[in-house]
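Sharing a chain and its predicted structure for anyone who wants a worked example. Both blocks are below, sequence first, tokens second.
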Amino acid sequence: PLNPDDRMAFPAHNNLGLALSRLGLRSEAIEHYAHSLRLKPNDTQVHFNLGSVLLDSGQPSEAAKHFEQVVKDLEEVVKIRPRTRAMLAEAHYRLGNALVRLERLSEAKAEYESALRINPYHAGAVSKLTKTPDFLRPLRDYGAVDSPLETKIRD
């Protein structure tokens, strides 16, 4: 449990991390997100935010750990709170991006496919799976039957 001082510090550090990240001050953002996680280690949104800035900072191994945590946390939550599906799909997608950078392509493909099972029209996952020959697979397999993108790809 957070003490009264920490209750105020947690959102402040998270919000500072977000603002600094948007300004391109990634190392400073990472520090604030890390501090947020010290105060509230199980916060899914902070893990997502930290994973994103780590990935943008060229630290895919560290980013992957945070996206794996988000996926783990949301796999159960999504059953109760369906509105978390979008974040879960995005976490799978970003984990896939981290795994590509780590040259773990088969695992990355599985993450992109997971993103598409959750959201068959996730543009990033569709793009990654269709622009790399090893990832080509009919989009109808993910529920995007006869999508305009699939028609374009076939032509």
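Comments welcome. Helices lie at 4-22, 26-39, 44-56, 60-80, 85-101, 105-118, 123-131, 148-154.
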